[in-house]
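Troubleshooting log. The previous structure file for this entry was overwritten by mistake, so regenerating from the original sequence record. Sequence copied from the archived sheet and checked twice against the printout by T.R.
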Amino acid sequence: MAGNYHRSVIITHTTLFIAMTTVFSWVSIPFIPVPITLQTMAVLLTGSIMKRYAGIPMAMYLLLGAIGLPVFHNGAAGLGVLIGPTGGYLVGFVPAAILVGLCYEQESEKIQVAGLGLATLVIYLFGLSWLVYSVPMNLVAAFTTGMLPFIPGDIIKAMAAFLITRRILPYTPRFSADD
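Regenerated output below.
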């Protein structure tokens, strides 16, 4: 690893984004059936900064929570969280972060904004699917309780992620194809 700048940056960013996602999970407003947290904004920021490597910290975040570290909302931990009603949303973090990352590899701000919106929909897709299965409830009930109330907040979080990324991206390390 000595001398491999690219790998060092990935490891450092992975650690930082796991920590950020954990801290953001503590900003939690109790809601039924899932709490409102800033975790989704952390997912979007992870993708926008780490690009195609954004799945690494999100997968590690899930692994750390699954083995019992209190990284999920309000310090929750364990496999029970992943198989509970919020589990689908959490699992959706991995593909959502990768999607944002791939969109942020493009220069077009339109593609980047679309990536933020699509990633949020991916989280909803995973979350609602698991909610329908695990609670169980029908799709309409899952939509009205597990997605609809969260849309305004998620739009704000996506806008904030876009603006934050625009502000800090010039100061983050860039990867080339040769690294």
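The chain has a mean pLDDT of 91. Archived copy saved in two places this time.
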